[in-house]
Amino acid sequence: MNGVKFIRENGGLSRVLPGEDHTSGLIVYGETNVAKTLLNNAVDLETISVTHETNPVLHYHVSEFFRINPGAKLYVQGVEASDKTYTEVKVLQNFAQGKIRQMAICDFKMASTNLQTCVKKLNQIAQELALGITPLSILFSCKIQTSEMTSLPDLHTFSSERVSVVIGQDGAGRGNYIHGSQPSVSCIGAVLGAVSKAKVSESIAWVERQNLVSDTYDKKFTGGEFKGLEMDVPAFCDGSLVGNYTPAQLQSLNDKGYLFLVQYPGNAGTYLNDSFTATAQNDDFAYIENNRTIDKAIREVNRVLVPKISAPVYIDPDTGNLEASNIDALEALCEEPLDAMLRDGEISGHHVSISPYQKVLQTSKLEVVLKIIPVGTLREIVVKIGLTLQK
Hints:
Layout: E1 24-29, E2 34-39, H1 56-68, E3 74-79, H2 87-95, E4 102-111, H3 115-131, E5 137-143, E6 163-165, E7 168-170, H4 174-179, H5 188-197, E8 234-236, H6 247-255, E9 261-264, E10 267-272, H7 288-305, H8 324-343, E11 349-353, H9 360-363, E12 369-373
Parallel strand pairs: 1-3, 1-4, 4-5, 5-6
Antiparallel strand pairs: 2-3, 7-8, 9-10, 11-12
Helix pairs in contact: 1-5, 2-3, 7-8
């Protein structure tokens, strides 16, 4: 019907989200160098002279990140050429004072023949950062040719539980437009936004919460032409459309552990197929949410225990064991942040225990055992249905 219609848009106030779970990092390799900086919205790119013309890929992924999760914090860097060492990941995390929880690496000129080498190197870096109690999850995308799509390696053999590989891409909007001049741009910015938007316990493939379609970009970003809704047409980063693949081919890519865009019949929107990491499926950390949950627990328990370093601990003079009051106090201290995660629905339960039979006088070392029950994810729902004469 005729009339005036109003559409409420979100994100204009640039309100910053509480906490640090959303704090993210993005490094794009293959464009003009951009110094490390912190952004609170896509408009901030203007302050560092980054435009859709000077750095189209970086500008796009930053825009996509904030489109999905306005109010988050994003540390960014542009690197002209990749040497496959990715030392910039460590430096950017250090620049952010260890606050980055998830980082996207878009190396769109790196051939997929180097995929395993790159993933394993990034996983090694993530493991080293974790030793310093600054753990993060890493997303990675590289250049993929159409001829390689059906022969991509199985990521579940990579033993790299801290890295996920993104091969999805927009098929009819700004991402597709950029792909015309910069192939394999991927949709890693949007995926990073989805990771930062989700609770640490949530899968980024949660259909009810993670629709990646919201709006279109101004035609100034797409060569003066209006394009469709971003991510409304799912594609792969070789430029091929998801709709042109058979169910068996899509299942094969899913079974190999790649992240890409999917749609569900009868449900509007575009979503991620899953939240795989590049490790065996029976690994405790086979999914991004498993890593983010344990990483948050580590950071939070570390926060309350660090002040106790070199503190006195008393011994029961009759038994030589640790005094019960010391044990109770330390267990309660560790339980405090885990109780907060439980209240926030980020874990299902936890248990903290400290054995009194520890030789602290001889070793000056105390062992604390933490057990966390994670939140499950409904990856598949099986419904049995049939006709019957009576119920």
